[in-house]
Amino acid sequence: MPAPRVLIFGVIFAGIVAFGFWLGETADDQVGGDRIVIEYWEKWSGPERQAMADLVDEFNASQDRIYVKFLSVSNITRKLMLATAGGNPPDVAGVWAADLPVFSTNGALTPLNPYAERAGIEPGDYLPSVWGQLVVYDRLWGLPTTPSANALHWNKRLFREAGLDPDKPPRTIAELEAYNDRLTRINDEGDILVLGHLPTEPGWWNANWSFWFGGDVWNGEDAVTATGEANMAALKWIASYPERYGVGPLLGFRQLSGVFASPENPFFRGRVAMALQGPWMYNFIQNFAPDDFEWGVAPFPSLKAENYGTSLVECDCLVIPRGARHPEEAFAFIAWLQEPAQMERLCLAQLKFSPLAQVSEDFYVRHPNPHIRVYRHLAESPLARWRPQMLTFNEFSADMGSAIDDIMRGAESPEQAAGELQERQQGLFKRKYDNWQKVRDERMKEWDQQ
């Protein structure tokens, strides 16, 4: 991160601590004397939670003006919306950047533009694929913690056994399916023993397959495009699996697939040779895969060679809910976490890559994941994508998952499934979009006055 931003923030943070220009301070806000207590809700649990807890402890020990009370909260999206509507939100919350369109449209967040400007935080401090997720309606709603990028993961042993070069993954969808044919093994009874690839394994990004086919699922403004060329190409590709391998054998194969976070995971067991996954796989492989498991990471194949390198980048972020009692202090904590030293420690502890534009070489030297640079390069690429900032994307995603299940079961053709999906989701989207247009100008004025 550029040095001037660090210097500016340091002056601002020192001013906050030294002069204590706090708003709404009460006796209940004090801990250990004159410290202001800010409440921070975070969705993480386990090691991810502990990584942030350690940094919170460090922040609390680094100065004597602000005390962060750190709480791990389940179902944070729903609870944060309810707490904000009830007028009793936390000061800081850790959410998924993909939910910022819904939070902001519903007036649940505080715009961070003026805080960021005072701290010298700029778009160029971050990867464009990360910053782009944080800006909705031309306002900045959060600052990042840990990002991820999806990539092709493959089993090198299975490649070698199939006569494929274990260090040469497929680059196009056509190559992926050629590899698939060589990797797939079926016994005399017609049961599938090994599949080269299965689009529904794990099936977490069913609504985003159109990215690798050169398109999207909406037009970026006012219409869903489930029947568009890219999404139709993706659905027809998915439909080719039950056509080639049979509905029954595929259902049987999927029923025998084990729990993801276990040694029964089909990728770890060698039952699926290639899968779309992210940087967290290193930790699961260390914990659940055989000791001699050989794996590689590369961009997921795309329909056209010129789009090779496309990836879905996702990010966790910190926000200040609307109505937070201590927004200045909350932002001081958030900004402290954006400093390179803190950010790299957090991302290293969570086995992710840094969202900052500048990263130290020591970060990569210390990182245990041998493929971490691959994910980072994908996030740096101009082909990097993020989830559509459409108001109904969560509903669209669930509906797309159901449509793909129908296609995989042979219950509907891609054309039928997409047509019905388009009708349902465009109707839902239009209602929410029209409602937003009615309050947009007023909401924008409110944001500008905050």
From TrEMBL:
Main location: periplasm
UniProt source species: Ruficoccus amylovorans
Keyword annotations: Membrane, Transmembrane, Transmembrane helix
CDD domains documented for this protein: PBP2_UgpB
UniProt xrefs under InterPro entries: Bact_solute-bd_prot1, SBP
Protein name as catalogued: ABC transporter substrate-binding protein
Localization, UniProt: Periplasm
One CC-aspect GO term: periplasmic space
Transmembrane segments: 7-24
Taxonomic path: Bacteria, Pseudomonadati, Verrucomicrobiota, Opitutia, Puniceicoccales
Gene3D superfamilies the UniProt entry points to: Periplasmic binding protein-like II
Pfam families: SBP_bac_1
Family indicated by similarity: Belongs to the bacterial solute-binding protein 1 family.
